[in-house]
């Protein structure tokens, strides 16, 4: 535990993670007031500190005992600024969806804090928590299972108003729902239709309209376009960008498709096995990656250019991602890394600007959790 | 030509009417060649492949016309018994979802060995030995120890390797891979595609790669056929197509994907929705979504116009499209 807190201190010292200004609210009313207060554009709106989620592994039926834990998220820190899009990429099992659930307060973290405007949302309850929930909404991956097939579109989009009636008074709801349908590019007359009457792309628009219903400040998108066809993907991505400008939204955009994440994100974090491997602006991550995992990930993405076939360097990783129940010691990527040395097994690399780049203003100077961080362009053909 | 599909038509009879999934598809693949069939869901790319393999669900599916020539024989004229000898031994298929394509209650060694028992009449012991060899060949670590494991004990990438092992077991002349890496993570996807390409070279097999991913196509294919509403709208050598598409649908697809190597402006989005196969639009099926559509597109089905010797486009205005 002592090691963890030390870890925490050092991560907080890094430039991309700002100091948390904890708003000291003694009463619920003060907390609600802090949550309702507006945040300047570019200021941190969500600050995540050393977030952890361990799922217990138990054995036995009658006498359950814990034999271990799946460390789905194991010490993740980042900031989300007002009006920006933070992309989170990683392969299946890296913990990116668990991060989404934690931010939504759908799961309780094992340790760590999530500050929304200075309030730790993991410790809130009652009215204050309700106010937070109104302001952080989610768009899910699968537009087929995330909409109740027995509810009309009007009921689906209007349901959030049942819980937060202050946003839309009862008599005003129908008009409000139709307005939302119009905003996401659907015909307002479709209000009485059922989800099965829509195509995948249209359903995702319904999901987005539901997310927008309460005028939230943050929308967490968990793989919002991966179930859609290429030609429809572009429509939904364009819509999301338009809505961001129109309603001044901040997005956390979780996806495994690196090209889409680059397109929509201002900053990008790369996760591997429950930890953040590298985080920076889109140019820093895509054009100047310094973590070997990011480099391997980027080099593995097929580029729609047959000429790149011969000219691009491919880093083919060996083996599979280790189990998060029993992650490797030291650096978690070392079992698949071509640069791994003894140090990597002994010492956990911290997410910080690598020493060799400190003080310089090259794009390579961004946070990377690697002992041997080195810049390497893997995206552009040589 | 190793395989030639000529003017194939497939329809599905459903309660709500007839869905015309494939409407006159013609393509061919040579030994050692990789043909990518690109299309979105409902374009008929998988149905065509199922018809070639002879695993189409009939009913509701029905092949209503066309020929499938494999090494000179028309497969559609063969009896089911003869067809079964072709399937697996001379052409094999790799599916997208390895977990649901493998039998969960039979160990992988027996599933691989079954190929040799059924088609080659081998004994169980020899078949098991061949299974281990195959697993080594697709680079599954510790093949000897893992041959008795069940599918759920393997990771997604390893399961897909077992599917590949099963496909190459009898050294077929043709492999059809239907979205073989869609369910896999990018780093694993690269491993699996590499393995597939290597085995193809080794055995000089024809490969039909069915995918919706323009990146994967650019990486491995020699030729590409783009499908829309059950027709091939453009077919071309892969370099030519990416350089200058000769069909507005292909152009739209290429413009609508975000790029990894540059931060783009707003994405181009093809307007509208993919067509309903029960009511395919008249004339050119793409006309309601096409920025270049004119009156003739609503009435006349465009034939495959010859763009160059090895390139065709089913667009009345392919010249304009080619010029940008």
Written account of the structure:
- The complex is a heterodimer of chains A (382) and B (324).
- Chain A has 382 residues and is an alpha/beta fold.
- Chain A has 2 domains: 2-20 and 47-57 and 67-265, P-loop containing nucleotide triphosphate hydrolases (Rossmann fold); 290-368, no CATH class.
- In chain A, 32% of the residues lie in helices and 20% in strands.
- Chain A has 13 helices and 11 strands.
- Chain A has helices at 2-12, 28-36, 96-103, 126-135, 153-163, 173-183, 200-212, 230-247, 258-264, 282-287, 292-300, 308-311, 342-346, and strands at 44-59, 65-81, 85-89, 111-116, 119-120, 136-139, 218-222, 250-255, 267-272, 275-281, 367-368.
- In chain A, the strands form 2 sheets. Chain A has a 7-stranded mixed sheet with strand order 6-7-8-3-9-10-11, sandwiched between helices.
- In chain A, a hairpin with a 2-residue loop joins strand 9 and strand 10.
- The longest helix of chain A is centred in the middle third of the chain and has 18 residues, at 230-247.
- Chain A is globular, with a radius of gyration of 22 Å.
- Chain B is of the alpha/beta class.
- Chain B has a domain at 239-324.
- Helix content of chain B is 35%, strand content 24%.
- Chain B has 13 helices and 12 strands.
- Chain B has helices at residues 45-53, 80-86, 98-101, 108-120, 124-137, 143-146, 156-168, 186-203, 214-220, 238-243, 248-256, 295-299, 318-322; strands at residues 3-14, 17-29, 34-38, 61-70, 73-74, 91-94, 174-178, 206-211, 223-228, 231-237, 305-308, 311-313.
- In chain B, helix 5 packs across helix 7.
- Classes of the chains: A alpha/beta (382), B alpha/beta (324).
